[in-house]
C-alpha cells in the first residue's frame, strides 16, 4: 500500500516526527557508560506514554522476526545494526550505539534512527562510518523531490556509501510510512537512477542508510530479531522520515536544534 497524505495528515506527521526526534535526543543525552539497554527502553516507554502516543515496535510481528518485538525502541550496539532488541546489557565507554524509534500518534507514524559513540573514547573508524551514513541520508533526501523516482533516491544513497568504501546490503532499506510504520515503496540503499515509483507530493518515506565496516552479510541473534554483521565488525545507521512536497523534501524528524 502506498499512501498519499493530505495537508491535515501531514500536519499530524510533523507533530509525530518532532516527538520522535525529541525522544531520540533525550535518550542520546542519557546514554552514558553504565546505562542499561533496558533502562533506555523504559525511558522510551515513559516518554511515549506521556505524549499520548504508541510505539510501533511493541506489537510489531513481521514475517522475518520472532514476534512480537515486545520492546519500545531498537537498541543496536557495536556489531548489531538493525532491530536490536533491548536486553540486560550495560553500555561501555566507546560503544557504538544506534537508537531506532518509530512512534504513532493521532493516526500517523514517524520513524528515525541515530548512531553515536558512548562516553569519552571516540574511535575514528566508528565516527567515519557514522558520518558516511549521515552524508548518504542527506544525499537521499536531496534527491527526493516531486517527479523523482525511487531509483534516484537509492542511487544517491548508494553512491555515497560506496565511495566511502562500504559494501551495501539491499535486504533492508527505507520504506513508505504513513498510517502504519512500514509501507510500500521499498527504498533500497543502492539502485539505478530513473527507475521505480515516481515520487508525489504527500508521500512520506523513511530513508535509512546503514552499513557494516567490512561486510554486507548479516546474521540473526538467538532472540530472532537482532541483526548483526557476519564478521563481528561495527555498524552504523541513520534515518529520517521525510515528506515529499511541491518543492522538494521536508524532514519531519529533525531535532529542534538542527532545524533551519
From TrEMBL:
NCBIfam families: met_pdase_I
Gene Ontology process terms (BP): proteolysis
Binding annotation for a divalent metal cation 1: 100, 111, 239
Record's GO cellular component terms: cytosol
Biological classification of the source: Bacteria, Bacillati, Actinomycetota, Actinomycetes, Kitasatosporales
Binding note for cofactor: Binds 2 divalent metal cations per subunit. Has a high-affinity and a low affinity metal-binding site. The true nature of the physiological cofactor is under debate. The enzyme is active with cobalt, zinc, manganese or divalent iron ions. Most likely, methionine aminopeptidases function as mononuclear Fe(2+)-metalloproteases under physiological conditions, and the catalytically relevant metal-binding site has been assigned to the histidine-containing high-affinity site.
Protein name per UniProt: Methionine aminopeptidase
Organism: Streptomyces abyssalis
Leading EC class: hydrolase
HAMAP family: MetAP_1
InterPro entries named among the record's database cross-references: Creatinase/aminopeptidase-like, Pept_M24, Pept_M24_MAP, Pept_M24A_MAP1
SUPFAM superfamilies: Creatinase/aminopeptidase
Catalytic activity: Release of N-terminal amino acids, preferentially methionine, from peptides and arylamides
Amino acid at each position: 500500500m502506498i499512501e498519499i497524505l493530505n495537508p491535515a495528515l501531514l500536519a499530524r506527521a510533523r507533530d509525530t516526527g518532532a516527538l520522535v526526534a525529541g525522544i531520540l535526543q533525550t535518550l542520546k543525552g542519557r546514554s552514558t557508560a553504565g546505562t542499561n539497554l533496558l533502562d533506555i527502553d523504559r525511558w522510551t516507554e515513559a516518554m511515549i506514554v506521556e505524549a499520548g502516543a504508541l510505539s510501533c515496535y511493541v506489537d510489531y510481528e513481521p514475517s522475518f522476526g520472532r514476534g512480537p518485538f515486545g520492546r519500545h525502541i531498537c537498541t543496536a550496539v557495536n556489531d548489531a545494526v538493525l532491530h536490536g532488541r533491548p536486553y540486560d546489557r550495560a553500555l561501555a565507554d566507546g560503544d557504538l550505539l544506534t537508537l531506532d524509534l518509530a512512534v504513532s500518534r493521532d493516526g500517523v507514524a514517524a520513524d528515525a534512527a541515530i548512531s553515536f559513540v558512548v562516553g569519552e573514547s571516540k574511535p575514528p573508524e566508528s565516527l567515519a562510518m557514522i558520518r558516511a551514513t549521515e552524508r548518504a541520508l542527506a544525499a537521499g533526501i536531496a534527491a527526493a523531490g516531486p517527479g523523482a523516482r525511487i531509483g534516484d533516491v537509492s542511487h544517491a544513497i548508494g553512491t555515497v556509501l560506496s565511495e566511502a568504501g562500504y559494501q551495501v546490503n539491499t535486504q533492508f532499506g527505507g520504506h513508505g510510512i504513513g498510517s502504519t510504520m512500514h509501507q510500500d515503496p521499498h527504498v533500497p540503499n543502492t539502485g539505478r537512477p530513473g527507475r521505480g515509483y515516481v515520487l508525489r507530493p504527500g508521500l512520506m518515506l523513511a530513508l535509512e542508510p546503514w552499513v557494516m565496516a567490512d561486510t554486507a552479510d548479516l546474521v540473526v541473534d538467538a532472540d530472532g530479531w537482532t541483526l548483526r554483521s557476519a564478521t563481528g565488525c561495527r555498524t552504523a545507521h541513520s534515518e529520517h522520515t521525510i515528506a515529499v512536497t511541491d518543492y522538494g523534501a521536508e524532514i519531519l524528524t529533525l531535532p529542534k536544534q538542527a532545524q533551519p
